[in-house]
Amino acid sequence: MSTIITRKQFPNERTYEMDLCGRPLKINVGKVAELASASAMVTYGETTVMVAVTASPRPRDGIDFFPLSVDFEEKLYAVGRIPGSFMRREGQPSLPAVLASRVIDRSIRPLFPYDFRNDVVCTCTVMSLDRDCSPEVTAMIGVSACLAISNIPWAGPIGCLEMGYVDGQIVYNPNQEQKHESKLDLTVAATAQKVIMIEAGAKELPDDIMYDAIVKAHEEIQKQVALINRMVSEIGKEKMTYDHAAFDQELFDKITADFMDEARAAMDTDDKNIREERWNAMIEKWHEKYLDEHPDMDQFLEEITYKFQKKIVKAWLLEGHRVDGRQKNEIRPLSAEVGVLPRVHGSGLFTRGQTQVLSVCTLNTLTACQKLDTIWEEETRRYMHHYNFPAYSTGEARASRSTNRREKGHGALAERALEPVIPSVEEFPYAIRVVSEVLSSNGSTSQGSICGSTLALMDAGVPISAPVAGISCGLIQDDDGGFTTFIDIQGVEDFHGEMDFKVAGTKAGITAIQMDIKNDGLSHAIIKEALDITRDARYAILDEIMLPCIAKPRAELSKYAPKMISMKIDVDKIREVIGKGGSVIQKITAESGAQVDIEEDGTIHIASPDAECCEKAKKMIETIVFVPEVGALYYGKVVRIMPFGAFVELAPGKDGMVHISKLSERRVEKCEDVVNIGDMIWVKVTEIDEKGRVNLSYRDALREMKDNPGLKK
Question: For residue range 21-53, what is the model confidence (pLDDT) as tens digits?
Fold first, then answer.
């Protein structure tokens, strides 16, 4: 009986295309991953990302948040590589992949319904990578298109664009060559009306140029939104109905009516602990008064607290009153210290109100650079910034767990903010790691870590080009579209506000931006005002707090830091320095006590806690690679005398011969009449023959010494 085969048909397959900044964008739907809520194969240039979004049919029980997951999966086959791990397969996501996931999450999350409790998972798998076409942009567009055409309730679509700044010009979706030259790495996501996400790194870019780049990105993004809206009109599914999260509105109305004055009094303090103590005491009163009538009230207490506090905080901020009594442009009390830890290479403690971060800088040789196994171009990381957020920093009694995505993201933000001021490897040949330990958290610890890390780097003697400070800006909007921005948001303002607009930079310009929002986006006017007030705040923090603490990097490294010397040799001499099986370099290391690292271009880095050990290793290497120069003068030791001439040691193991005829202006009967073994004499290199033998002249050296009295032994 013969096998029956039917060719698979894809009647719902559609491809939507547009030109995106000079390169083709294609969104193919209806062919792959048919069981997902929606899926697409998105290709930008030759970058291809498989995107699938799924939603559970029923809400997750017992939660009071929207369970959204975004997974950005990098497959090394996309760049023709085999993973370097022992298992030779992809493991946990790399840091760039985690950051890409976070960027997509922050862009789409605000547009889901507030009371939606169904699990939603967005999976973006990078299957082919064209380095001129961003996989993050491709994935973001794909997620937006899939969510928009799916049955999942979502108030999109959005578009996404990267922006650069090359040779004084703003560049849309820069290619790889342009990225290397660019002073800006900006990612913007937006709806047709408002900007919804900003993520930026910059090389001290002026605020007005940053603002122009954001506005131009938003204008260009509207073309993507139009394409996705066309997809929705042609193939979009009807949005699913869902069970709205339960809430006891009657109980909420009673509590707000009966306890408004007491709640205001409880909130009106700058001390987070006092506020929580007052609020918990008030909750006990709610139990006494309402529990009999509302026996299930405990399941709503957290949301009632959130809505009640938000109601108070929003009303206050719109009136110009802040929870802790500050003005909207007033920063909480600040403190900066350096050198707070013994033996570490550098440390800085930065405190803003009840937010406190201790940053510690460690220096090491370049062998300590982090090796990366990702789809991105970068293969090593010389400057590393890590951020830790222990439970005790917020007063929680919770055991420590492994580093989460938030901690990785905040560490990467601080790293990005400080990267532009880190000296080049030629200027400072060290691997640098900074760890920010959050000791107390009451708002914007990521910006506190930037300030603390600047202090730690300077305390360690890292010659950064300029100090960096970071600050955050908040937002409250009224029902008529009016808005109020305020500087240095504390935890309660972040929790109940609508924006956390973080900006870091030097006096010369911005180095990093990260924007989180809880509304449907920002107008250009809000972005402009946020940039203005954060710039003024950065200047104040630098001038009044950080620079009076430490005005410039220390001139000397810590005595506990490795001392480093760099030198360059001819690449043809590398083999001589290494020796057969590494025998020579091992001998240098053993005898000098210094660590020696050799790069392919002939650059050698020598490191040791003792500077004398570095110098000893350097002299040993110079001896090995020493090549005399014809016409040069050298001061050497007579080591052997023959009837026909004297041999002079120019460097250990490097001899040359002075023929007897070139020992003096007069005729010499025997060499001992002029020199003896052990004498130190000046000689001039007259010739290096085809066999590498070095011929010297004592007579010519004496003539040159006479003509140039400045030459001394």
Answer: 999 999 999 999 999 999 999 999 999 999 999
Q: Which residues contact 92 (CB under 8 A, 6 or more apart)?
A: none
User: What pLDDT shows up at residue 713?
Assistant: 44
Burial of 614 (0-12, 13-18, 19+ CB in 10 A): buried
Name every residue whose Cβ is closer than 8 Å to that of residue 419 and which is 6 or more positions away in sequence.
201, 383, 511
Backbone torsion region of residue 524, taken as left when φ is above 0, otherwise alpha when ψ lies between -120 and 50, otherwise beta: alpha
Beta bridge partners of 39: 52
Tell me how far apart the alpha carbons of residues 604 and 592 are, in angstroms, rounded to a whole number.
Answer: 15
Per-residue confidence (pLDDT) for residue 654, from 0 to 100? 82
Q: What is the largest CA-CA distance in the chain?
A: 125
Helices 249-267, 301-319: crossing angle, 10 deg rounding: 50
DSSP H helical ranges for 291-337: 301-319
- The predicted-structure confidence for 664-680, as pLDDT tens digits, reads as follows 989 988 999 999 999 99
Report whether 51 contacts 122 (CB < 8 A): yes
The residue written with tokens 């559970």 in the block is 56
Phi, psi angle pair for 34, to nearest 5°: -65, -20
- Tokens coding 309: 């506090």
Closest CA to 203 of 508, 515, 545: 508
Nearest to 353 by CA among 313, 322, 389: 322
Render pLDDT for 459-495 as a digit per residue (tens, 0 to 9): 999 999 999 999 999 999 887 778 999 999 988 888 8
Contact, 467 vs 506, CB < 8 A? yes
Between the alpha carbon of residue 498 and those of residues 194, 325, 481, the distances in Å are 14, 19, 13
Per-residue pLDDT at 367 exceeds 80: yes
Question: What does the buried/exposed string (b/e) look like for 688-705 if buried means 16 or more CB atoms within 10 Å of the residue's CB?
Answer: eeeeeebbbbbbbbbeeb
Give the per-residue pLDDT at 710: 58
281-290, 477-486, 500-509: which has the minimum mean pLDDT? 477-486
Q: What is the average pLDDT score of the chain?
A: 93
**CA dist 402 → 214, 385, 399, 405 (Å):** 35, 16, 10, 10
Q: What is the pLDDT of residues 167-196, one digit of tens each?
A: 999 999 999 999 999 999 999 999 999 999
Most confident of 20-24, 82-86, 580-584, 662-666: 20-24
- Tokens for 681? 């004499």
Are β-strands 595-598 and 510-517 bridged in parallel, bridged antiparallel, or unpaired? unpaired
* Spatial separation of the C-alpha atoms in residues 489 and 442, rounded to whole Å: 9
Residue 548: other Cβ atoms inside 10 A: 10
Q: 82-100 b/e with 16+ CB inside 10 Å = b? A: eeeeeeeebeebbbbbbbb
Contact call for residues 698 and 682 (beta carbons, < 8 A):
yes
Span between the terminal Cα atoms of the chain, in Å = 102
Cα–Cα distance measured from residue 625 to residue 421, given in angstroms and rounded to the nearest whole number: 35
- Reduce the DSSP state of residue 7 to 3 states and report it: coil
